Structures
1.
Amino acid sequence: MEMIVFQTQEELDTYAAQLFINLVNEKPNAVLGLATGSTPIGIYDKIVESHKNDKVSFKDATSFNLDEYVGIAPENEQSYAHYMNKHLFSHIDMPAQNAHLPNGMAADMHEESARYDAMLEAQPVDIQLLGLGHNGHIGFNEPDVHLSGGTHAVKLKAETREANARFFASMDEVPEYAITMGVGSILKANTLLLVVRGADKAQIVKEALTGPITTSVPASLLQTHARVIVLLDREAGRML
Ligand code: GLP
């Protein structure tokens, strides 16, 4: 595991963005695993800036997002599809048909999960960006006695709904279910890029990276992967 602690957000964002830019410049048809939440926004801003300066083109690239809320349409501002369009897709030249998210409006979540897994199987992810939930979740893989390998629908924990309530008008509007890539699918990516910011995540960063490998901290399973890059700000790394 390679770990870098950054003094400024600017440096962290630039470093993370550069990993994606270098990959796509070396391998134009790269498959990018993308994430949402507040953590990646600065990274996407840097990628967009580089694209605008003609430093990178995504015209042959493909992307898969980790997760989506169930029952929230892509047009809805709270959907992860909307987030991705707003922060990245509408600013770069990746063809719309190459940008994949699980469909949270699918009538049958089992079918949708199988469809997503088949696409991931056909186009393995080169680099998967990951944020970290306060309870150690990655994507929406919540702590549990067992974890799912493949894409699946999941009931969100109260603490996850509370953490994400800031994006909604009220707690009642926060979806109860999401569809997420499984931990098994995440671990199939060639390289994992875990990015964590903030003092409120210092404890869970320590548990995930140095504690026992356990399904009660889903991110601890990252310790089993051969190529993990961890980028932290000073606050998130202060307990290591
Ligand atoms: C959500 C997402 C996760 C993300 C997490 C942390 O639950 N499903 O993929 O990592 O939030 O988000 P933030 O970066 O806003 O703290």
Note: The mean pLDDT is 97.
2.
Amino acid sequence: MAQPVILVENLTKQYDRVVALKGVSFQVEEGEIFGILGPDGAGKSTLLRLLAGLDRPTSGRIQILGSPPRDPRLRGRVAYMPQVFNLYADLTVWENLQFFGHVFGRTDAREWERLLEIARLGQVRDRLAGRLSGGMKKKLVLITVLVSQPQVLILDEPNTGVDPVSRREIWDLLFEFHQQGMTILIATSYTEEAERCDRLLLLYQGRAAEVQSPQALKKPLYEKVWRVPTEVSRRHPDLSTLFVIQQRGGWSRLILRPGIPLSQALSFLQQLPTLATPEEPTLEDVLVHFQEAMHQ
Ligand code: ADP
């Protein structure tokens, strides 16, 4: 079997009092778009910083393309885009690209042109980076990272605070490079974004679930999610012993709690004055279910 592009074994990271990662293990295969999905504080940035070699784990092992993260052989082959990234605000879009191109020894201007075109930044090439909109800035950051033509791209929540149109354009950019064989690892707290990944690692309070595709993660929740009118859930507070209740507009979403037998839930629902309607499970339900399981 081909060696995984990223191998993480039993990774633990402890800051003074906080254990940010607790025995996390997974593998990323060549050409995958691999997502790390978890709420704020789950440990995503910590994990990515360790992968990028910016910090050392307390224990455990990481291999990227067969080498440890700080190995000089990985230079130019692995790129990392942190959440906060400083562009040169006083340089134009084109000058930023030129600058990072030279840093990485990629000096072919045709390649820079191509990146501008894919990112749809051609029209603002002479604008100062400091004057770009939030979404444009993110796209520029991404292409200054991509200018090194890495085999492996590690992205820390690239779409946080980005408007939906720019978000879609960033994904178009990622898919374009993915099609050329790039392996992409992306951390996100957006479930809608996680849907685009081939496989996902769910992370919560430093602990990880087994890696699976979004479809496979949702499968066990089929027939375990319902909706009822909000007034019904208000009149039956004991519903919350069997279900996690998520309030929506005029209705509530009920997600079966881990460890509760389905038969018990069904007989409870049958006693309600209004029929509970089955709902398609979503990745958000999966995340809620996982968090509940971690609390037990
Ligand atoms: P996420 O990226 O999923 O939001 P983080 O990796 O940033 O999560 O944080 C995970 C946990 O580790 C949090 O409780 C956070 O407060 C803690 N943490 C992160 N960095 C440090 C640090 N340098 N020192 C102390 N605690 C930290």
Note: Residues 223-279 form one domain.
